[in-house]
């Protein structure tokens, strides 16, 4: 799994309004509406406003990413949560978050990024929430996915979940991955077909890119919509001029996590 870096996270603080503008221009939804849609929830099912949240820095593995926890707290704050970063990292930070009365606790190591609902004892997981958020963004931008041909690039955790979600919504999903066995297996599970990356890009207008691959603009069809959680994000100027590209390094996945985590204590 690709790990975020200091550089990828650097721009998150202060960019929430730009992400909101990008989202509403492309999908017609703001971040809360997108998160609710991604999770199949109604507005009354999850109201993040005023919910106390902590982001706990985690030092294990490759260690703390500069401004990661601060960025997570900022994204939660943008949804109206009362969010802050704990003074201490790791277990002491988790304990601090509990003592401070936080209802939602965000933490990430190199494998897993989760939001824990203290009262409900349940977790929202970033891979699922990222897949659901970007699938919902693609659906919003395309005016629905039922009966439409959608390409998923990357059959890892996010791509495989997104393929299942969009297939269940009636899309005709095709999966492309450099590992063809992995693509075949995920396609079987999702009721999807398989294709090579470049020929699939040339024959699809709706793409969910959950891979770190560089897709050259010359291969992209004009008017395409590309919902792209994949990092690093390396679309060139031609791609950006031909396609609507939906991407941010943290906001969409974290917003969906926050809303799902809040919904755990609101809906039994
Ligand atoms: O607390 C910190 O600053 C770090 N321990 C954060 C680590 C962030 N983790 C990742 O980027 C992993 N790839 C997990 C993200 C899951 C994406 N679905």
Specify Rg, calculated over alpha carbons.
Answer: 18 Å
Please give the CATH architecture of the largest domain. Answer: 3-Layer(aba) Sandwich
> Approximately how much beta-strand content do the residues carry?
15-25%
- Uncertain segments are none
CATH topology of the largest domain: Rossmann fold
Mean pLDDT: 96
Instruction: Classify the secondary structure makeup into a structural class.
Output: alpha/beta
Domain unit count: 2
Assigned CATH class of the largest domain: Alpha Beta
The number of helical elements comes to 11
Largest sheet: 6 strands, parallel
Structural account:
With 268 residues, the chain is α/β, with parallel strands linked by helices. It folds into two domains: 6-127 and 251-266, Rossmann fold (3-Layer(aba) Sandwich); 129-246, Rossmann fold (3-Layer(aba) Sandwich), CATH 3.40.50. Helices cover 43% and strands 17% of the residues. It is built from eleven helices and eleven strands. The chain has helices at 6-10, 16-27, 31-39, 68-78, 90-99, 126-142, 157-168, 180-190, 197-202, 237-242, 251-266, and strands spanning 52-56, 82-85, 104-108, 113-117, 122-125, 149-153, 172-176, 193-194, 206-209, 225-227, 244-246. A six-stranded parallel beta sheet has the order 8-7-6-9-10-11. Strands 2-1-3-4-5 form a five-stranded mixed beta sheet, sandwiched between helices. The longest helix is centred in the middle third of the chain and has 17 residues, at 126-142. It is globular, with a radius of gyration of 18 Å. Bound molecules: N~5~-D-lysyl-L-ornithine (2YJ). N~5~-D-lysyl-L-ornithine binds next to helix 4 and helix 6. N~5~-D-lysyl-L-ornithine binds at residues 1, 3-4, 57-58, 64-65, 68-69, 108-110, 113, 126-127, 130.
């Amino acid at each position: 799994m690709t790990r975020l870096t200091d550089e990828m996270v650097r721009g998150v603080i202060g960019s929430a309004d730009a992400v909101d503008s990008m989202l509403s221009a492309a999908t017609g939804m703001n971040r809360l509406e997108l998160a609710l849609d991604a999770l199949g929830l109604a507005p009354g099912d999850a109201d993040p406003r005023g919910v106390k949240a902590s982001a706990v820095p985690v030092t294990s593995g490759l260690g703390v990413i500069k401004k990661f926890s601060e960025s997570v707290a900022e994204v939660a704050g943008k949804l109206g949560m009362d969010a802050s970063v704990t003074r201490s990292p790791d277990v002491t930070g988790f304990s601090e978050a509990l003592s401070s009365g936080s209802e939602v606790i965000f933490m990430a190591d190199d494998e897993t990024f989760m939001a824990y609902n203290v009262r409900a004892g349940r977790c929202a997981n970033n891979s699922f929430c990222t897949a659901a958020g970007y699938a919902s963004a693609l659906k919003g931008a395309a005016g629905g996915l039922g009966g439409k041909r959608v390409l998923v690039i990357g059959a890892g955790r996010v791509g495989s979940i997104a393929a299942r979600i969009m297939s269940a919504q009636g899309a005709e999903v095709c999966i492309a991955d450099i590992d063809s066995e992995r693509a075949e297996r995920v396609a079987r599970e999702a009721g999807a077909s398989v294709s090579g990356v470049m020929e699939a890009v040339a024959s699809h207008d709706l793409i969910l890119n959950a891979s770190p691959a560089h897709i050259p603009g010359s291969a992209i069809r004009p008017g395409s919509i590309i919902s792209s959680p994949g990092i690093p994000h390396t679309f060139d100027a031609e791609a950006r001029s031909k396609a609507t590209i939906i991407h941010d390094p943290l906001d969409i996945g974290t917003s969906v996590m926050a809303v799902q985590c809040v919904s755990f204590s609101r809906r039994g």
